[in-house]
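Quick log. Single chain, no ligands specified.
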Amino acid sequence: MSSSNPSTNYAELQRKYLQELKHLEEEEERLVDNLNNLFNQKTFLEDKVKGVSKLIPTLKVIKHEAQDLVNTINDISDSSEKISGKIRSLDVAKNRVDECQLRVNDLIDLDICSQGVQAAILDSDYEKGAAHVHRFLSMDQSVLTKTATDMDNVSNIMKSVRTLQDASSQLRAIVEHKFNEAVNNEDLTSIERYNNILAACEIFKGLL
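-> predicted structure:
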């Protein structure tokens, strides 16, 4: 029976122990590194938490101010819509006032034209008479009638209309006569004058 050398066995055991010790030391070093990393992360996270904690009051203020801003914007939007509605109502009212003003002006002009055309014929101011008839014909007859109805003034309006229609026919007849006289007398100035008035009267003839 052979026996092993004790010194060899001790050396082998020592080698194994040293390897195991080295392994344990390496493992310990690794664990220490991990622990240090965790500690560093813990410190970093604690600093972050402290920073966030300091921001929380500010964030609450910002949130409150943001909500106030949203409420203000909503109030402005509501007010703008109300103001827009009032502006639209004012525009409608303004258009109605403008329309009424135009209709009243037409009635005033109608009365002026009715009186003016007769005076112009008496004064032999046929150009002025033609201008009165022209102004009358530029008015919307249906609007005149509606305005007169609204104002319970139909009879006076129709009287003025008939006056202008009759005056237009009378004016055309007078100017035709004057034109023929000017032709017979070879009065070139008068021929040109009455010819221009007759041209306007022909327009009246087509509109009356």
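The helical segments are 6-122, 126-137, 141-150, 154-184, 188-207.
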